[in-house]
């Protein structure tokens, strides 16, 4: 058996096992050393391949696809800095618990550390940002080594999804010649149809003594609070709102909680808390007896201040598998259990828990005050503000839509202006590391599922990932991008740095003065720039009828935007503080 046959059989068994374990999509960035992987994955009839030239963008594309499908996605690249360009997306995937399988080709051992071209140290390249790393053996075709290849493929798919999902990394040292031979007979045959390592995985639940202890801890407490931060399960909404109704308890729902939209009961959902928890006196007035949080820490910094102000409050954090996500540093009790099953068990077992009606009434009234002010109609023909553009987007976006939301001001305005709706909407964002990079590519990865995706993004984040648009052109993916252009880093206008007139614009404001229309044209997209509310409404409606790239730009002023937001917050605070509660 020659080198080519050994190489082909070894890689084919690895790839076939990936497919047997449920891998259906792989994003490939072309290169020479990765030829055996790239060609074999493309040849396998059970795997869809997506070609993306830029590794950095490709990795975020894979991330978005995995978020949308809730299944592992593989990435393949050649050796050297190609693999290093995956790093930002891998960090995001690790912190946001997204399953990725990273397959990096490498020089064989004799070409490492000797000055060979395109050879860098790839062993544990991503450090602690992957759940598992394995350096694959050099290709062989003995029965033992083909079983080894299958074993590692099955393990990689399992570990990417096990517990808290995340990225895994396998590094393939490969010798030349690199082109596989697919004419080899019985190449894909395998006696077993199932995975090489089948697994049974059960759900974590609290036993009866643990449930009783939890309920004893909450008994007689009248000012409870549920908080639902970023999470991806659509099933949690029904379970937590049913429990909230049973306990008569408010739910602070983050925009990424998947709870603000849908057909479930929303009477106990508080969606405007970020606007009124900004004032210290209001935070102190709303002192809770206990807090139970589901999902990650909410986007809202005002909520962070709230839990810091009430650090003595009994706090429970529900994690499905493991983790200690508590950035406020408060003493907390962690509940490691399936959150949906926990809500259902508590609903059945908690007859004695019933919060004070005045408590939930107070939250509801403050929420109503916030909504009234945030949605106060402006004068006709006034120029659009950033918040109003977000509000209008949620009016127009079609039922059963997925929205990808950029970081910095985009997610904060969505937090403020996305109120509860009976529409069924799914919101995604890269809130693991909260970077502005890769947002275009991530949203297009979500669009690879065939859905028309909506992306809300700022100008700096859009500029940062312009090359991500190439994959949309290549595969005719459908996307509407609402581009909020305030010519720079609008989020910094809300931070203390804004007070430094000498350095602010150069270091933080960072205006880029780009006419994005030319870039959109380059990638064959549809572009419009709108100034007024009705113009935006018409442009959004049109965009959902057009295939391909649709970009609607709303130009705003950072200084005016800051004043507009501050005036809204002051009006909300004044009305709440002037009331008798």
UniProtKB/TrEMBL annotation:
Signal peptide: none
Entry's EC annotation: 2.2.1.9
Keyword tags: Magnesium, Manganese, Menaquinone biosynthesis, Metal-binding, Thiamine pyrophosphate, Transferase
Keyword Transferase: yes
A Gene Ontology molecular function term of the record: 2-succinyl-5-enolpyruvyl-6-hydroxy-3-cyclohexene-1-carboxylic-acid synthase activity
Chain ranges of the Thiamine pyrophosphate enzyme N-terminal TPP-binding domain: 14-124
Start and end residues of each Menaquinone biosynthesis protein MenD middle domain: 214-405
Cofactor notes: Binds 1 thiamine pyrophosphate per subunit.
Enzyme class of the recorded protein, top EC level: transferase
Catalytic reactions of this protein: isochorismate + 2-oxoglutarate + H(+) = 5-enolpyruvoyl-6-hydroxy-2-succinyl-cyclohex-3-ene-1-carboxylate + CO2
Pathway(s) of this molecule: Quinol/quinone metabolism; menaquinone biosynthesis; Quinol/quinone metabolism; 1,4-dihydroxy-2-naphthoate biosynthesis; 1,4-dihydroxy-2-naphthoate from chorismate: step 2/7
All copies of domain Thiamine pyrophosphate enzyme TPP-binding, residue ranges: 431-554
Cofactor(s) the record lists: thiamine diphosphate; Mg(2+); Mn(2+)
Family of this protein: Belongs to the TPP enzyme family. MenD subfamily.
Biological role stated in the UniProt entry: Catalyzes the thiamine diphosphate-dependent decarboxylation of 2-oxoglutarate and the subsequent addition of the resulting succinic semialdehyde-thiamine pyrophosphate anion to isochorismate to yield 2-succinyl-5-enolpyruvyl-6-hydroxy-3-cyclohexene-1-carboxylate (SEPHCHC).
PANTHER family referenced in this protein's UniProt entry, alphabetically: 2-SUCCINYL-5-ENOLPYRUVYL-6-HYDROXY-3-CYCLOHEXENE-1-CARBOXYLATE SYNTHASE, PROTEIN PHYLLO, CHLOROPLASTIC
Subunit structure: Homodimer.
Protein name: 2-succinyl-5-enolpyruvyl-6-hydroxy-3-cyclohexene-1-carboxylate synthase
Organism: Virgibacillus alimentarius
Organism placement in taxonomy: Bacteria, Bacillati, Bacillota, Bacilli, Bacillales
GN (gene name): menD
């Amino acid at each position: 058996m020659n080198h080519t046959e050994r190489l082909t059989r070894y890689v084919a068994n690895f790839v076939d096992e990936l497919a047997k374990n449920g891998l259906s999509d792989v994003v490939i960035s072309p290169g020479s050393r990765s030829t055996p992987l790239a060609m074999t994955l493309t040849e396998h009839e059970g795997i869809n391949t997506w070609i993306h030239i830029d590794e950095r963008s490709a990795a975020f594309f894979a991330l978005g696809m995995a978020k949308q499908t809730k299944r592992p996605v593989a990435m393949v690249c050649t050796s050297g800095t190609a693999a290093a360009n995956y790093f930002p997306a891998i960090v995001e995937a690790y912190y946001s618990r997204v399953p990725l399988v990273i397959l990096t080709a490498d020089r064989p051992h004799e070409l490492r550390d000797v000055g060979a071209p395109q050879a860098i140290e790839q062993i544990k390249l991503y450090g602690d940002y992957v759940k598992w790393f394995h350096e694959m053996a050099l290709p062989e075709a003995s029965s033992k080594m083909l079983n080894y290849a299958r074993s590692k493929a099955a393990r990689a798919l399992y570990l990417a999804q096990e517990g808290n999902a995340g990225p895994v990394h396998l590094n393939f040292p490969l010798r030349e010649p690199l082109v596989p031979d697919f004419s080899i007979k019985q190449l894909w045959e395998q006696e077993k149809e199932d995975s090489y390592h089948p697994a049974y995985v059960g759900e974590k639940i609290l036993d009866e003594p643990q449930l009783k202890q939890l309920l004893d801890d909450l008994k007689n407490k009248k000012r409870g609070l549920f908080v639902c931060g970023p999470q991806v399960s659509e099933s949690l909404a029904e379970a937590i709102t049913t429990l909230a109704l049973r306990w008569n308890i408010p739910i602070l729902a983050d925009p990424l909680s998947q709870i603000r939209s849908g057909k479930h009961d929303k009477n106990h959902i508080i969606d405007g808390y970020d606007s009124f928890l900004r004032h210290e006196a209001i935070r102190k007035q709303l002192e809770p007896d206990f807090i139970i949080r589901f999902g990650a820490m909410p986007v809202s910094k005002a909520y962070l201040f709230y839990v810091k102000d009430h650090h003595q409050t009994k706090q429970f954090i529900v994690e499905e598998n493991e983790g200690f996500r508590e950035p406020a540093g408060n003493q907390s009790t962690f509940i490691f259990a399936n959150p949906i099953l926990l809500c259902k068990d508590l609903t059945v077992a908690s007859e004695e828990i019933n919060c004070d009606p005045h408590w939930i009434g107070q939250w509801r009234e403050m929420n109503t005050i916030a909504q009234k002010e945030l949605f106060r109609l402006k004068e006709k023909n006034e120029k659009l503000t950033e918040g109003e553009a977000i509000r209008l987007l949620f009016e127009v976006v079609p039922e059963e839509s997925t929205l990808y939301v950029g970081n910095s001001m985009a997610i904060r305005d969505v937090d403020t202006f996305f109120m509860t709706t009976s529409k069924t909407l799914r919101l995604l964002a890269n809130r693991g590391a909260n970077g502005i990079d890769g947002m275009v590519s991530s949203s297009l990865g979500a669009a690879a599922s065939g859905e028309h995706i909506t992306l809300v993004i700022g100008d700096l984040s859009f500029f940062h990932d312009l090359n991500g648009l190439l994959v949309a052109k290549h595969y005719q993916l459908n996307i509407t991008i609402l581009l909020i252009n305030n010519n720079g880093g609008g989020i910094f206008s809300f931070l203390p740095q804004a007070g430094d007139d000498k350095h602010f614009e150069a270091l933080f404001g960072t205006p880029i003065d780009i006419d994005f229309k030319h870039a959109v044209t380059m990638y064959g997209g549809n572009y419009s720039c709108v100034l007024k509310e009705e113009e935006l409404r018409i442009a959004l409606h049109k965009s959902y009828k057009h295939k391909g790239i649709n970009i609607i730009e709303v130009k705003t002023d950072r200084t005016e935007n800051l004043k507009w937001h501050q005036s809204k917050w002051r009006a909300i605070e004044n009305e709440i503080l002037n009331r008798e509660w």
